[in-house]
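Data availability (excerpt). The following record was deposited with the supplementary files.
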Amino acid sequence: MRFLLPTLAAALACLMSMPAKAETADVERFRAAMKSARWTGPLLASNAETLPHGHVYTEPYLFDEISGGDHHPGSSGFYQYGLLDNWTVGVQPFFALGTRRYNRDVAIGDFKLLSQVRVSHFTPEHRVPSVSLVTNLVLPTGRHDHLGELRNGHGSGSFAPELGINVQQYFLLKNGRLLRGRINILRTFPLRSDVSGRSVYGTGPDFHGHARPGSKTSLIVGAEYSLTREWVLAFDVERDQWGRTDINGRDGSGAAVEITSPKSWNIGFAPAVEYNWSDRAGAIVGVWIVPKGHNTRSSVTPAIAIQRFW
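Predicted structure:
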């Protein structure tokens, strides 16, 4: 986390630099600009706002991760409910679609329970950033072990609490259009998982033991430019870092087996275009480009999502 602290401090200082209370003329300009802008949200960075009490938000994603010439299509998304005006809960499912002849089916990945509590709220009058505290839980719903010889796993087998912070701020440009910025910081703490047989951790068919996945730290910086009332240009930068994963157990002969996956990191970029046909619905199309990182492979992931506020 040490490399994140200076970045977070500088980013928050920048976002906080606007005056807390604005003049009347500036307030009216901001109100007019916000009324003339509609948003879906960029591909990667999450919203720091919460839903009004009793309202529902849905944003299903379809994507195709392409790495090493192989396609890995799937679906994810956000399904959220405003439990209170300042507290939103929800679920983020994950599904994978097999494309090979021996693996053509829909598989369930790890689901995530979502919770976000807002502690500050941006308004045209008081332009402090919207800030929310995030407490999620990854559920090991995807299969991770007892895999057939030609089958892929899509889970970790581990419960994983997540803690984070989401920040969002609006900037009024000289042309009267808005620039919306977001910062997300999220840390995942996977718990130990039992592992048997072939698994996503590279164990053999006679293995019995456990795995302790490394923690994951994500920093996402996103920006959206309101080109017109309906059209928005979006761009994200995401840095992910994974800790060392340790696998310990025994094979069929009783011999000890120890496998260690080294630390890794990468940086990805996600340009996208949004079209919002109403204040309650819109779509985004973009691509997440991840060059080869430290102990990670490169990938290109086209994605499309449709959001709806109920």
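Summary of structural features: Residues 4-309 form a domain with the Porin fold (CATH 2.40.160.40).
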